Amino acid sequence: MEDFGSALVLAGVVAALVLGVYGVSAAVRLRRAPVTVAPFLSGEAVTEHAVSRYHVRWYTVTLLFLAFDMEMVFMYPWVLVVTDKGAPAVVEMFAFLAVLAAAVVYAWRKGHSGGPDGMAAAPRRTARLHRDRDRHTADGVSCRV
Basic and acidic residues bias: where (predicted)? Predict the structure, then answer.
């Protein structure tokens, strides 16, 4: 029973020290300005709520990321057994990579490779719109496409 009492005294002393350190820290700290408490957005003012929703087109980018992530999951074990399996394992991996490359080319052509507008297809689409606009305005008719 005496050992239990000394453990309680030790726990009380430790709790008092911890609370004392927190109390002294709270008493001597500098007060924060409201700007430093706000969320940090690379120095810019926050324009939307932190729980805002993402555009649905970002989910295709997420699925592409998961596809390539799964590619890496399958490539790590393959590296361990490629020397034992020989050339057939290399051929199978290149076939797997060819299927993934075809998916990348398809997504790239469809414009699903980055963001709501698609980074890859946007310049080509913009160039086509400018060309069509210039063609319609070349004959003197002011018509926006």
Answer: 129-138
- What is the rounded CA–CA span in Å between residue 67 and residue 61? 10
Instruction: Check if the beta carbon of residue 145 is closer than 8 Å to that of residue 129.
Output: yes
Whole-angstrom CA distances from 120 to 71, 85, 91, 114 are 22, 38, 30, 7
Tell me the C-alpha to C-alpha distance, in Å, between residue 23 and each of 9, 13, 15, 18, 103: 21, 15, 12, 9, 59
User: What is the structure's pLDDT at 8?
Assistant: 92
User: Which residue from 76, 121, 71, 79 is spatially nearest to 98, judged by alpha carbons?
Assistant: 71
92-143 pLDDT tens trace: 889 988 988 888 788 778 776 654 454 444 445 555 555 555 555 444 554 4
CATH of 2-138, one of 3.30.9, 3.40.390, 1.20.58, 1.10.150: 1.20.58
